[in-house]
Each structure stands twice: as structure tokens, then as C-alpha cells.
Amino acid sequence: MSQHEILVLYYSRYGATKDLARLIAEGIESVPGASARLRTVPAVSTVCEASEGPVPSEGAPFVEYADLKECIGLALGSPTRFGNMAAPMKYFWDGSSSEWLSGALIGKPACVFTSTGSLHGGQESTLLTMMIPLLHHGMLLMGLPYSEPDLMSSSTGGSPYGVTHLAHADGRAPISPEEQRLAKAQGKRLAETALKLIPKNG
């Protein structure tokens, strides 16, 4: 069976969002015929002349706009920044006009995920802000259904809008067993849906 790739695109400052991304990728790859393409975005500098190197020193490669076209679905993750997605992720989407004009993402499924340092730190509003550019791109947004029992029992993270993680102020709280199961379930659901939506001639 040929493998179809799903883009797992994230920005992570202290590692928690990256850990969630890897769990979502595990869920994606539990589905026969699907594989995950992990990518990140470079940090945004406050100095206009400063820029990241072309290759990250560690972790996933930097995303290219071609990744959006080549993949059959998208999982998008960012830490919470005052109830919004982080600036580096917003900067990436602000530059995606060519993909919008060409309709590169129309009809592809997508989901979102986030991590934050405080219990009421804006997880759900961050998920919603990440959905907005995806809606403009014509993507089909997916959440987590309440058939996932961990949504009702988790005391750390979890949302019907997408998986979340409570990292605490120092960013060091491990991803809870409930959060792990929800992340994998979200990746699996995305992959299963993306495979069903592949055009017959694709």
C-alpha cells in the first residue's frame, strides 16, 4: 500500500508542543497507508536583520509552503500566547497567499493542538485562532468527539476543539496519560478521514 503523508506542523518553545506533535504523528502512523511529515517554523526575531539558519540545529526541518500542497491533511500546533497562536506560526500563515490563491488546501482535513503554562491560559481560544486561517484556506476542520472518554476525565488538558496540554509555568510537566491518548486518537482520526477524502484519481 502506498503511503500518503499528513503534515504535522508545530512551533514549540520549551518542547511540550513538540511532544504533542510526536504523539499525534504516532496516531497518524497507526493507520495503514498514512505517514506523518513533521515540520516546524523558525522563530521570529525582534531584530529585522536577524534570521534563522536554513536548517534547524535540532528537531524537525523547517516547513516549506510546498509541504501544504504535497500532504493530504494537516495537524497544526502552537503554544498559547495570550490566548492566541504564537507569532512564528502566525507569520508562516500570513505568507501563504499563493497557496490560498491556488486552492492548495481546499477540501483537506485539519486539526489543531496547543500547550500552555497555566490551567486557564487560553487553550481553547488558541485552538480557535489557529482554525481561522485554515477556514480561509478551505480546509475541513476536525475536533475530538466525546466518544473519547478521556475528554470527560482529564484534569490536565483536552478539548473537543483539539488536544491540549497543561505544561505549568516552567514548561516541564509531562504529558499526562489522558493527554497522550487524546493526541494519538486525534492523529488517528485525522489520518482515517484524510485517506477517505483522497480523490479517486489521487
Structural class: alpha/beta
CATH superfamily, by name, is: Flavodoxin domain
Q: At the first level of CATH, what is the class?
A: Alpha Beta
What does the main sheet amount to?
A: 7 strands, mixed
The CATH architecture category equals 3-Layer(aba) Sandwich
- The backbone outline, from C-alpha atoms, is globular
As a whole number of angstroms, the C-alpha radius of gyration is 16 Å
SSE ordering: EHEHEEHHEHEHEH
CATH fold title = Rossmann fold
- Rounded mean pLDDT is 91
Task: Count the E strands.
Answer: 7
Stretches with pLDDT under 50, minimum 5 residues: none
How far apart the termini lie comes to: 14 Å
Give helix % range: 25-40%
Please indicate the percent range of residues in DSSP E strands (runs of 2 or more): 15-25%
Helix run count: 7
Whole-number tally of structural domains: 1
Offer a quick outline of the entry.
The protein is of the alpha/beta class and 202 residues long. Helices cover 36% and strands 18% of the residues. It has helices spanning 16-29, 65-70, 87-94, 97-102, 123-136, 150-153, 177-196; strands spanning 4-10, 34-40, 74-81, 84-85, 109-116, 140-141, 164-166.
